[in-house]
């Protein structure tokens, strides 16, 4: 699932229906009075926040949104139908900006929060409205006005509970797919994750959603824009947990734990050293490829003495679901307790 966090769309509210010019005619009343009805109002466009949506992907394929036009008025004083309103659903935390005016219109932070983004045009008046003692047969009507038309930017100010960092091919995407609802395509090539992947974990302790974000793999000098850069780490600013995913099967082959941790630490420190103040755990992945993990555990404990900011480590196999359940329980408990402390 590619992740889309910013899009520009065009919205056009409906036009108001025109008024009608008509005169009542009957057998014994050949010159009846005016009976032209009013037009209907143009449809409005609303934007509503939906907590079941987690990115702006759908707007990548469709970026023009038009509400219904009001119908014209009719004879016999009949009013035209109002244009159909249009409701656009976006994720929680969507900031909406008027591009042409460069003004932030609203940030939708609550589920079902709704905002009128484009107002429909006002209806035109039929000639029934212009009858007077002076003019009993008015040949006058008004035209319905156009609805508002805007170019707006939708920007997702993402709420992330857990951020995932790691080198390319460390198994981050497989891990997110296994532990959450994310549907990801896994291939063995460098920069497997080219866009952020957002997964959702259900915390059974309070039935809340836990969001987990996998960003493109880090390489040396990512902070300079090498590879895919570090731009996506901006979403970690307000997260509660950061995971380092390390492929334990490559230890003593190409990297050792110390070197991998140094690469990750150096890159994120140059990007934003405050990230090191957050709760950080290491997930040693692909344990299924090891014949003997006992000596690795002692080595890990020795290494982590040098990294005081790392609080816990886990040995897992994302592919074979080894160690995932224990990690899931610890994630749920930690975030549940943290939430209660904050409240």
How would the blueprint of this fold be written?
Elements: E1 6-12, E2 45-49, H1 58-61, E3 64-66, E4 86-90, E5 94-98, E6 103-108, E7 114-118, E8 149-156, E9 162-166, H2 172-179, E10 197-203, E11 208-214, E12 241-247, H3 257-272, E13 279-285, H4 294-304, E14 310-315, H5 324-342
Parallel strand pairs: 1-3, 2-4, 9-11, 9-12, 12-13, 13-14
Antiparallel strand pairs: 1-8, 2-7, 5-6, 5-8, 10-11
Backbone shape: rod-shaped
- The fraction of residues assigned to DSSP E strands is 15-25%
Q: What's the architecture of the largest domain in CATH terms?
A: 3-Layer(aba) Sandwich
Structural domains: how many = 2
Structural class: alpha/beta
Tell me the strand order in the biggest sheet.
Answer: 10-11-9-12-13-14
The CATH superfamily of the largest domain turns out to be P-loop containing nucleotide triphosphate hydrolases
Low-confidence stretches: 183-193
Helix content: 10-25%
CATH class designation of the largest domain: Alpha Beta
Mean pLDDT equals 84
């Amino acid at each position: 699932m590619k992740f889309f966090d910013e899009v520009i769309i065009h919205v056009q509210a409906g036009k108001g229906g025109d008024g009608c010019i008509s005169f009542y005619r009957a057998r014994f009343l050949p010159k009846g009075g005016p009976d032209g009805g009013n037009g209907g109002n143009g449809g409005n466009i609303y934007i509503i926040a939906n907590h079941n949506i987690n990115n702006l992907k759908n707007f990548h394929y469709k970026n023009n949104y038009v509400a219904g036009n009001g119908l014209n008025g009719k004879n016999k004083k009949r009013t035209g139908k109002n244009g159909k309103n249009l409701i656009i659903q976006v994720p929680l935390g969507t900031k909406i900006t008027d591009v042409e005016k460069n003004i932030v219109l609203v940030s939708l932070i609550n589920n079902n929060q709704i905002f009128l983004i484009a107002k429909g045009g006002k209806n035109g008046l039929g000639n029934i409205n212009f009858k007077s003692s002076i003019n009993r047969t008015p040949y006058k009507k008004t035209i319905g006005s156009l609805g508002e038309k805007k170019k707006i930017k939708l920007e997702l100010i993402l709420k992330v509970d857990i951020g995932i960092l790691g080198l390319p091919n460390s198994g981050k995407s497989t891990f997110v797919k296994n532990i959450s609802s994310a549907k990801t395509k896994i291939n063995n090539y460098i920069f497997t994750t080219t866009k952020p992947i957002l997964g959702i974990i259900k915390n059974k302790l309070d039935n809340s959603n836990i969001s987990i974000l996998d960003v493109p793999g880090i390489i040396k000098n990512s902070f300079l824009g090498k590879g895919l850069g570090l731009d996506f780490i901006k979403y970690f600013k307000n997260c509660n947990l950061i995971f380092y995913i390390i492929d334990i099967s490559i230890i003593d082959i190409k990297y050792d734990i110390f070197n991998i941790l140094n690469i990750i630490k150096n890159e994120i420190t140059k990007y934003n050293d405050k990230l090191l103040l957050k709760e950080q755990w290491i997930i040693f992945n692909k344990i299924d490829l090891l014949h003997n993990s006992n000596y690795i555990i002692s080595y890990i404990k020795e290494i982590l003495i040098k990294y005081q900011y790392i609080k816990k480590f886990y040995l897992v196999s994302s592919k074979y679901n080894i160690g995932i359940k224990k990690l899931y329980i610890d994630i749920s408990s930690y975030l549940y307790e943290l939430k209660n402390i904050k409240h």
